[in-house]
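S1.2 Input.
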Amino acid sequence: MSQPYSEDEKELFQHIGELLILLQDVEQWMSWTLRLCFPGKNSINPQKLLSEDRRTLERFVKELNKRTELDPEFKRILKKLIKDRNFFIHRMRHQPWFDTTTKKGLDAIWTFLSELQEGIKTISMTLQIVMQKETNYFRFARPEDLQALKEGNYFKYWAEHAELADRAIKRKSQQSALRL
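S1.3 Output.
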């Protein structure tokens, strides 16, 4: 692995827990993007919007494919994230290279986690940008919220992912997003 990582097992497992939460965030962003921006045949209502969505990331992507045209690069990143997510959740711990007691094992673990984290960041930011543009979010954002985003470098990440977001998801029909 090219960048330094912690050899502390506690920090490794903390990072694994953080990635699990970030994967849950990806699923939430996907749900919101589908519900708000690409609602499908049935229009969105407050009850649907606020209800819990128990679909998996893979089901969200299938539904997004039905309702939209996905950019090939975005689709490739999504497929890799689903593959990596499923591996992370179901099989990573049982791999021969998953050894927290050796440098080689730690290197393999951190390499995989770094790639997973990059996929999470790319998909999360892309979905956020798409949703914010489709719903015209910033038009109604409070000045203090915008300031907090600026101070937290959010717009730096926005700029890094804006090009992909602009082409990532295109609607198939004339149905419009929920406008805030």
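S1.4 Remarks. The radius of gyration is 18 Å.
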